[in-house]
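User: Quick sanity check before I run a bigger batch. Here is a single chain. Can you write out its predicted 3D structure?
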Amino acid sequence: MGEHRNTELGDFLRSRRSALTPAQIGIPTHGAPRRVPGLRREEVARLAGMSVNYYTRIEQGESHQMSDSVLEAIATALRLDETERLHLLRLAWPTQIARGPLGPETVRDSLRALLDSATGQAAWVIGRRGDLLAANRLGYALLGIEPGQRPNLARRLFLEPTARDLYVDLETIMHISASNLRISTREHPGDPELAELVAELCVKSPDFARIWATHPMTDCLHTVREFNHPLVGRLTLNEETFRLPDAPGQRMIFNGAEPGTQSARRLKLLGSLVSS
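Assistant: Done. Predicted structure follows.
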């Protein structure tokens, strides 16, 4: 059998190595100039307690039966967070981690009722490929989407200018969207529609191609999100994301405003506009 090379594993390790500086790790440089940004291979190998030759072979994507302790040592040396550690496992052991093929995505009636009951918040469910699977009226209104439509929010974000105008911090939103797709490609490597979507965005969107090349792994479950809504203006909303364990890859998202704020008044106005 020919040698198998796990090029995506090597790309991921190089991206994380280049993102760390000697100062972050406490490695003295004595003021000497460095030809490349980030840590050197030998520095990562030393931090992980392994030979430079062994780490180099891993980073070059050579097939290895790496143990838990080796992966943990590399993850610790590169200071990976929990999401990145899981991604490392998926890359190193794709056959053990990957799930089997999945059918069409659906949303339970009870979840739809939960969305509709959140009358003071914009709420929606996103699928593993970034499709908008369901939303309440305020959710559709906040996103600027007609009720009942199921667009792909990743495609919309990267390819439609009006959708991009909605977000104040567009760069962060793009990283989160690309990260979600990156995680899905590892969890569901046999999904042809997901692969086609990623290929399409890499070709049509320079922003997506740029971010995708960095192996983004942001897992943002709660934050403060700012919107520039065309109907009601600037909104500052608290966003909470919940992963649905019995629906792999699906996420339920709620956006609500602090009571008594201008954003709360504007969100209520938006609700009255879509209810009228």
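The longest strand covers residues 233-243.

User: Great, the batch can go ahead then.
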